[in-house]
Amino acid sequence: MPKIIAERSDVIPVLAEIFREYGYEGASLSLIASRTGLGKGSLYHFFPGGKEEMASEVLREIDGWFEDAVYKPLRDGDDPRAAILEMCRSVATYFWSGKRVCLIGAFALDNVRDRFSDAIRDYFAVWQRSLQQALVRIGHDADRASDIAEDAILSIQGALVLSRALDDTAVFERAMARVETGLLAGPDQGNGRTGP
Amino acid sequence: MPKIIAERSDVIPVLAEIFREYGYEGASLSLIASRTGLGKGSLYHFFPGGKEEMASEVLREIDGWFEDAVYKPLRDGDDPRAAILEMCRSVATYFWSGKRVCLIGAFALDNVRDRFSDAIRDYFAVWQRSLQQALVRIGHDADRASDIAEDAILSIQGALVLSRALDDTAVFERAMARVETGLLAGPDQGNGRTGP
DNA sequence: ATAAATGTTTACCGATTGGTACAATAAAGC
DNA sequence: GCTTTATTGTACCAATCGGTAAACATTTAT
Q1: CB of A125 within 8 Å of any CB in chain B?
Q2: How confident is the model at residue B40 (pLDDT cuts 50, 70, 90)?
Q3: A155 lies in which domain range?
């Protein structure tokens, strides 16, 4: 094999950051080439499908990360309470307290949504279902757990939008604190937000 | 004056819909020209500043609509409770139960955020402050009202992201119902979400 | 009627877009 | 040491990008 400056898997996180910063349309091939240090030839060698395949792989990698770091512990962990707490911590770290955008959320609002609709839907659907399962194991009934999980995920996404719009990480941190207390409030005490 | 097929003010809502569908970068001038029925020359006659001016005017118009239909009643209306209820109704209608994207929220996640950062920040900041004032008039203390208002706006934005990602308007409607009850819960009963 | 103001159309600009072709290069296997 | 195979750089492509120029049409004020 010839000289390997970078493997395909090394390039994907760089691509992810580029898409996050510039969006799908805004990330031109020349920009990608210069930021990755790879020529167009190499890029199309690694990703024959072009920009669309690059973005697909990025989405897959993000989904994989969340699957391992967040979803799986929520579903299979011994302690659902601890998994939920860990989710909040992971999410806050991952999104750099709101400074880093959720690429999948951004794609959902973009016109490229249709192109990646399956990946986008799965990402949120699996997250919601995993969180719901953890809540059920805490003692909530299924419907209530579904509602709470939905509200938590949507609050995180909204927090990313609002903290970025106001350029204020405190917005994100306050929202995460609210999400955490909302998720960990037991099934006995109502929280006035999701239910009867 | 020469023949007027469309006034500037007539074009702006069309532009808004184009930007909503395709994003800032995705809305090419030729697309804009064909959708508005105006040639490039006419476009640049109405908007000498080009695409950036078109987007600015769209943002201004959106802000103006919210100012009249939502913010002002929240601040100055006789009945703050009614104004809050009306806000929820207006928002649900405006966003077509989640099928229509919040252009300003989408811009906030996009790389064009820097270009329109002032308009984006003001839109959300004024919304939050107006809603906070209404909550204070209901009887909340200032800090608590600020927190509740922030949570409501962020939930709406997150609901738009999530309902679009899952392609399910029910997500948006459930979220709006939660927002409404959260906003209208009196200052006496805690709601477990924003509380001390 | 005519001049001036106001829109509109069309052709065009250089730059950049995503993508392709292909030769050059470098290492691994024999 | 030669061939094979995987990677890279360069040149190039048609298409489209945002934007400009200027001739052209239409209407109002005089």
Answers
A1: yes
A2: confident
A3: 58-184
Whether pLDDT at B190 is above 70:
no
Domain for residue B111, yes or no? yes
Residue B61 lies in a domain: yes
- Residue A75 and residue A125: Cα distance in Å, rounded? 14
Give the pLDDT of residue B1: 46
A2 touches strand D (CB under 7 A): yes
Number of Cβ within 10 Å of residue B63's Cβ equals: 18
Chain A touched by B178 (CB under 8 Å): yes
| Residue pair B96/B102 in contact by the 8 Å Cβ criterion | no
Q: Best interface-test mutation with A: which of B28, B95, B146, B150 has the largest number of A CBs within 10 A? A: B150
Decide if pLDDT at A193 tops 80: no
Asked if the C-beta of A33 comes within 8 angstroms of chain B's C-beta atoms, the answer is no
Q: What tokens were used for B62?
A: 């959106």
Q: How far is B99 from chain A (nearest CA, A)?
A: 10
- Which A residues 142-161 have CB within 7 Å of strand C? none
Is B82 within a domain? yes
CATH of the domain at A80: 1.10.357.10
pLDDT digit string, tens, across residues A38-71: 888 899 999 999 999 999 999 999 999 999 999 9
Residue A125 placed within a domain: yes
| Closest chain B residue by Cα to residue A112 | B22
pLDDT tens track for B28-39: 999 999 999 888
Give how many domains chain A has, as a whole number: 1
**pLDDT one-digit tens code per residue, A73-108:** 999 999 999 999 999 999 999 999 999 999 999 999
The answer to whether A36 faces chain B, any CB pair under 8 Å, is no
Residues 6+ apart with CB under 8 A from B187: B138, B139, B140, B141, B144
CA distance B196 to B187: 12
